[in-house]
Amino acid sequence: MKKNYKPESLMMSHGYKPELSEGSIKCPIFQTSTFVFKTAEEGKAYFELAYGLREKNQDEELGLIYSRINNPNLEILENRLTLWDKADDSAVFESGMSAISTVLLEFLKPGDLLLYSSPTYGGTDHFIHDFLPKIGVDAVAFHPEDSQEDIEKILAETGKADKLGLIYIETPANPTNSIIDIEMCNRLAKKYSSEDHRTYVCVDNTYMGPVWSKPLEIGADLVVYSATKFIGGHSDLIAGAVMGNAELMIRVKTLRTFLGNMVSPHTAWLMLRSLETLKIRMEKQSQNAQKVANFLNGHEKVEKVHYLGLIDEESPYYELYKRQYNAPGAMISFLIKGGEKEAFQFLNSLNLIQLAVSLGSTESLAQHPQTMTHCAIEPKARERMGVTANLVRVSIGVEDAEDIIHDVSQALDTVK
Ligand SMILES: *Cc1c(COP(=O)(O)O)cnc(C)c1O
């Protein structure tokens, strides 16, 4: 009987055949633009499959053609990525934004309505408000505290609820760790789907990362990642990924072929290395984060800590947290007593933790959302999402927990 190995056991080997690469234990970089066909007939057969001109014969595989269409580094990486989210297929992109914009372009058409959760990543927010209107797509937002009833009211007010094409959510949300019920979004999608149009649910799972939550298992149609964050995990690459069922992934990959925004072989190769340590990195990061959050919670210079591992069992969000996530993750934000001055004093006094945006990497990073990642958001909306002058965001890395706490502690001590 074949054992079902866990993803972390398969990240070193899955999908790679050493005999096709001179016995090399590791997959080499296939730094090539094009692939040689054995015969013209073979080239013809590959193109027929790649362009969907006919169905696959039994046991027929799509052969390698050209690196915009397929490449061994991308294919092996995609096969491995699907294991974490239990997806039929995945597609890797040159950035998280190219993964997200490709999904929005493929699953929305002129006249459609997009429902999205606020706060959303700044780049996504910009694409929704500055680009989508140019192709006739309207968007409306809801907030983590809105009930299904509230959201139905919001949709009704647009007068376009019957045109709801996509529900796009970010949970946990950046930077406050607010969480959204994916099952509720599935119910909404079902309710607004009709015979001639389907409403899809897409989850940006970047902030939690792939190990601790599986939105596809909960019923979402698509998951997107900025692979720059936990998946890459070393602050040395920019990439994105989309996962979903076979039927939807054919659409995503077809659009990717013609937008030409696939990841490069070299970046895919770096990500193959990253995936080997994904689980142990994220385990350590989450354990460290819980310790740092415990330290911050109740510190005399700290007003409030936003961390999933601090949600009280009495809180209405506790049940949802337990249902959707297996660990609290590595992202913390907290309100320092005071305002921008005190927040900056803290950030400027950090020694071990680096002052930089981005997240999910091996090194701990800290930043000030109001004046950095979330600076372009309209002030009223920003206030409503809890991004105030005294909010600091920290991404916890794999360093020694006591060392991280020591750095946070001494930096807080400098705040007057
Ligand atoms: C960083 C990020 C993105 C964008 O990803 P890039 O790789 O920078 O293009 C999208 N969503 C979330 C939640 C992010 O944190």
Q: How is the topology of this model organized?
A:
Blueprint: H1 7-10, H2 40-50, H3 72-85, E1 89-93, H4 96-107, E2 113-117, H5 122-131, E3 138-142, H6 148-158, E4 164-170, H7 182-192, E5 200-204, H8 215-218, E6 222-226, E7 240-244, H9 246-259, H10 265-276, H11 278-296, E8 302-306, H12 318-324, E9 331-336, H13 340-348, E10 354-355, E11 365-367, H14 379-384, E12 391-395, H15 401-413
Parallel strand pairs: 2-3, 2-4, 4-5, 5-6, 10-11
Antiparallel strand pairs: 1-7, 6-7, 8-9, 9-12, 11-12
Helix pairs in contact: 3-10, 11-15, 13-15
The structure holds pyridoxal-5'-phosphate.
Describe this structure in words.
The chain folds into two domains: 67-275, Aspartate Aminotransferase, domain 2; 278-413, Aspartate Aminotransferase, domain 1 (Alpha-Beta Complex). Helix content is 38%, strand content 14%. With 416 residues, it is α/β, with parallel strands linked by helices. The strands form two sheets. It has a seven-stranded mixed β-sheet, sandwiched between helices. A five-stranded mixed β-sheet has the order 8-9-12-11-10, covered by helices on one side. The chain starts with 6 loop residues before the first helix and ends with a helix. The model has no long low-confidence stretch (mean pLDDT 96). The site of pyridoxal-5'-phosphate has 16 residues, from α4 and α5.
Entry summary:
With 416 residues, this protein is α/β, with parallel strands linked by helices. The protein has helices spanning 7-10, 40-50, 72-85, 96-107, 122-131, 148-158, 182-192, 215-218, 246-259, 265-276, 278-296, 318-324, 340-348, 379-384, 401-413, and strands at residues 89-93, 113-117, 138-142, 164-170, 200-204, 222-226, 240-244, 302-306, 331-336, 354-355, 365-367, 391-395.
